[in-house]
Fold this sequence. Notes:
Layout: E1 5-7, E2 12-13, E3 16-17, H1 28-35, E4 39-41, H2 48-56, E5 61-62, H3 73-84, E6 91-94, H4 97-105, H5 109-112, E7 118-122, E8 131-134, H6 137-142, E9 158-162, E10 169-176, E11 179-186, E12 201-203, H7 208-225, E13 229-235, E14 243-248, H8 259-276, E15 285-286
Parallel strand pairs: 1-3, 1-4, 4-5
Antiparallel strand pairs: 2-15, 6-9, 7-8, 7-9, 10-11, 10-13, 11-12, 13-14
Amino acid sequence: xxxxxxxxxxxxxxxxxxxxxxxxxxxxxxxxxxxxxxxxxxxxxxxxxxxxxxxxxxxxxxxxxxxxxxxxxxxxxxxxxxxxxxxxxxxxxxxxxxxxxxxxxxxxxxxxxxxxxxxxxxxxxxxxxxxxxxxxxxxxxxxxxxxxxxxxxxxxxxxxxxxxxxxxxxxxxxxxxxxxxxxxxxxxxxxxxxxxxxxxxxxxxxxxxxxxxxxxxxxxxxxxxxxxxxxxxxxxxxxxxxxxxxxxxxxxxxxxxxxxxxxxxxxxxxxxxxxxxxxxxxxxxxxxxx
Length: 290
């Protein structure tokens, strides 16, 4: 396979390293570089114009980000999981909070079937900050100013989801090409959100059989959706079957040991991908610190 390896990732160098600082527009030199590339390394969530250029020219690239740039966010996740027929908690999507409130007050069967309490997830946001637990439509209505319904790379709106007790923990499976990292996120005592930013703790040595099931489900999602890199949240109720909760295309690195450790994992995934293409993994490397 002829041509240079081109990297748009700010922290991964290659034969040609293109930095799009200050949101500068793509220029002719960028387009010629991609056109002549043997392979292209992308950021975790690339700019849409960069992805359109690389994919449009049919260049091998890592990670594949088509799903991340079209079905990101809680509403997009629900559409994807429903379309793929993968197990997830019963959920109903709405374009606006007012529409969800009206449906609940009107006794719409699909909303009532969710039971109480209901998990409310705005389309955008992260780290558990746009997720709420409510018991009735009045509580939901009061959250109108707080629910973020905009999603940068996915459909807007919100999701009402059945609350399922996962025993105070869920499983985060970080997909890194052909490999993965998995760990439990355990909620603080008396809390229901297990996000690390909400005080959750990580555990790796726990419920190993359940962890294997959760990883297997995340891998099913990866194959079905064509994902290379994502943080997949899986809920495994005690004695129950695993359910997909969310797909995070830009996720926290705390459970992986921080940014430096994550970049090493990212580079390793890139190396495996390059090797599969018949290219020398050594042609990609982390940028040296200044």
